[in-house]
Amino acid sequence: MQIYLPIAELSVNIFLFLGMGAGVGFLSGLFGVGGGFLMTPLLIFAGISPAVAVATEANQIVASSVSGALAHWRRGNVDVKMGVVLLVGGFFGSTLGVWLFSLLRGLGQIDLVIRVSYVVFLGIIGALMLVESLRAINRQRKPGGKRRKLHQHNWLHGLPFKMRFRRSKLYISALLPLAIGVLVGILAAIMGVGGGFIMVPAMIYLLGMPTATVVGTSLFQIIFVTANVTFLQAWQNQTVDALLALLLLAGGVIGAQLGSRAGAKLPGEHLRSLLALIVLGVCARLGYELLARPDDLFSIGHIVGQG
Amino acid sequence: MRGLFTALTVALLLGGAGEARAQALVADLSDHLIAVTTGFVGTELLLFGATDGDEGDIVVVVRGPAERVMVRRKERTGGIWVNRHNVAFSGVPSFYHLASSRPLTDITSPRVRSRHQLGLDNVRFGGLRSPRSDVAAFRQALIRNKRRDGLYPNDAGDISQLGNRLFRTAVVFPSNVPTGSYTVTVYLLRKGAVVSAQTTPLVVSKIGIGARVYDFAHRNSALYGIASIFMALMAGWLAGAIFKRA
């Protein structure tokens, strides 16, 4: 069954996109990742223009992070104060990101920047995940490995503007979460991701937050940052396809719920290495497209306004 | 003064009617509106008509609304392929379809083709902004890309003629057909010269929910953004609520 997407302006198979939403949703539920970093490249592979893919995916992430954040909220796993500080940075970063996006779009370089960002980040994250999961599998085989220290003090703790975050039992400079927020905001705007895959490791390793509050707090922040991206993209670039977002989130919401249930029962580390391979596969495909000589060196684009 | 004006109008109308009676060519489309609905997968229109019976050739040209197009060329930079050069064209038909009863080159001279812009090689694009010497390559690339998108179907459209009076041809519009006002022009040629031409309008328009979403997104962009966020918030909350109970 075909459906015509009003903003993407093409006719697509409804089940393909519902299925993509469900598949990525399942993976995101299973691993507790946002899924944006898989969905946006998939949309591009499916023929949606990168500009529409990025903006629409931001809209979908609003929905998926709301249901995730609510679940964490009920368990008291959201550090609101930390979330708000991250959010201030996130608003600033995402506004800057959308402005950059519009600028690059006008220059005809946005597709390239999206692709390069994906290759870089998917490559790094995929490789780290693969190494980490292989190590974990090894640890399971040989129990009794070294434990890491909970807190490590370094120069980051010498920064000014210290704030107390009771929920996370931290007393650190507000500059650090602000900076993380800005970086993640820029990525959210340009890549159409929530940024959890950057923020979660940053919160654990840079801020030293307890793992219990990390996911809930990052989801809390992602809701508002992706909402800001959705608003700005819709307003400035008219690239948010609400119908496409609805299709993806219909599939995604169900997939995520099933995924989180399945995640409780399945051997996590083996699946995590599988996810790492998927991420690296997507990265390789995007990278190949950048390196290989295109079939046609020329491409065309609309110039807004009547000819 | 008023009487004179009325008399003139009547005379004009009568004159017009007389011309219609003697018209060498009449043609019409099976539909004057293509509705791009939510289930739109492309469509086919039938163009049919009649001539006055003498021998002649028919050429049909369907042109989409003019648009401005940026053509970009990639170049290898630091190992990856990057858009480096661009040329802007204006007055580019967003859709172009040509059909003829016999191969175009057999029935027209280059002068006639150029004058009536018959065939993609003869379509004139305007407002060239770039003084580049290789503009022709960019122009060819524009046509090639449009063709790949299915918006410039190959010049293979043929017209079937019944006797020397009736003719018909099918025009196929793909699912990505641009919206706007189209012109469908039918030419009657005799001995290589255009002896009669008729233009019929055609409108491609988004209809239904898709059209409303598109209009909303473009006319009230900020409000549309807020509505999209609200929809996502509701969907996320709803999903959370449903699955909490389950």
Give the SSE layout.
The complex is a heterodimer of chains A (307) and B (246).
Chain A: E1 2-5, E2 10-13, H1 14-31, H2 36-45, H3 50-74, H4 80-107, H5 110-141, E3 162-165, E4 170-173, H6 175-191, H7 196-207, H8 211-236, H9 242-265, H10 268-291, E5 298-306
Helix pairs in contact in A: 1-9, 2-3, 3-8, 3-9, 4-6, 4-8, 5-10, 6-7, 7-8
Chain B: H1 2-21, E1 25-29, E2 33-36, E3 43-51, E4 57-63, E5 66-77, E6 80-93, E7 96-100, H2 104-107, H3 110-115, H4 135-148, E8 157-158, E9 160-162, E10 166-173, E11 180-190, E12 193-206, H5 209-219, H6 221-245
Helix pairs in contact in B: 5-6
Description:
The complex is a heterodimer of chains A (307) and B (246). In chain A, the strands form two sheets. In chain A, strands 1-2 form a two-stranded antiparallel ribbon. Chain A has a two-stranded antiparallel ribbon with strand order 3-4. With 307 residues, chain A is mostly helical. Chain A has one domain (2-141, 154-291). Chain A has helices at residues 14-31, 36-45, 50-74, 80-107, 110-141, 175-191, 196-207, 211-236, 242-265, 268-291; strands at residues 2-5, 10-13, 162-165, 170-173, 298-306. Chain A has ten helices and five strands, in the order ββαααααββαααααβ. Helices cover 70% and strands 8% of the residues of chain A. In chain A, helix 4 (80-107) packs across helix 6 (175-191), helix 4 (80-107) runs parallel beside helix 8 and helix 7 (196-207) crosses helix 8. Chain B has 246 residues and is an alpha+beta fold. Chain B has one domain (22-203): Immunoglobulin-like. Helix content of chain B is 33%, strand content 38%. Chain B has six helices and twelve strands. Chain B has helices at 2-21, 104-107, 110-115, 135-148, 209-219, 221-245, and strands spanning 25-29, 33-36, 43-51, 57-63, 66-77, 80-93, 96-100, 157-158, 160-162, 166-173, 180-190, 193-206. Chain B has a six-stranded mixed sheet with strand order 2-12-11-4-7-8. A four-stranded antiparallel sheet of chain B has the order 1-3-10-9, with no helix packed on it. A two-stranded antiparallel sheet of chain B has the order 5-6. In chain B, a hairpin with a 2-residue loop joins strand 11 and strand 12 (193-206). In chain B, helix 5 (209-219) crosses helix 6. The relative contact order of chain B is 0.19. Strand 5 of chain A pairs antiparallel with strand 5 of chain B.
